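pinned: reference chain
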Amino acid sequence: MKRTANAVWHGTGKDGSGTLSTQSATLANVPYSFVARFGDGKGTNPEELIAAAHAGCFSMQLSFLLTAAGFPPDELKTGAVLIMESDGGGWKIATVELTLTAKIPGISADKFQEVAAQAKAMCPVSKVLNAEVKLAATLA
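pinned: its structure tokens
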């Protein structure tokens, strides 16, 4: 399986701007810039997209594992907070904090925590990140 995306950038790093597009066209020439990345400017940024991808990937992985264990979920709500830190002359993604609230009929708290931890470890986005991944999982 292959997925593609494209970025176009014009100008300097601080004053320039660009657009991001994805194969699915869900993102089609979506603006991004220094101000959107390091401030509150309009548009998206790579870290926001990674956080969204991580929340989605983890939720889907958890759903597969729960269903296989006999506990199909009613609802999984996952938030992701991506934390960047200074790294010498640049930046690095240091941590992603996943926060899950789940509605899963019939599952015990221990089994829920076990499967959630498995999903965190197995999620392809978790695997690709060179960052600490934290998980706070709560049954609703």
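why pinned: The helical segments are 34-38, 46-68, 109-122, 124-128. Residues 46-68 form the longest helix (23 residues).
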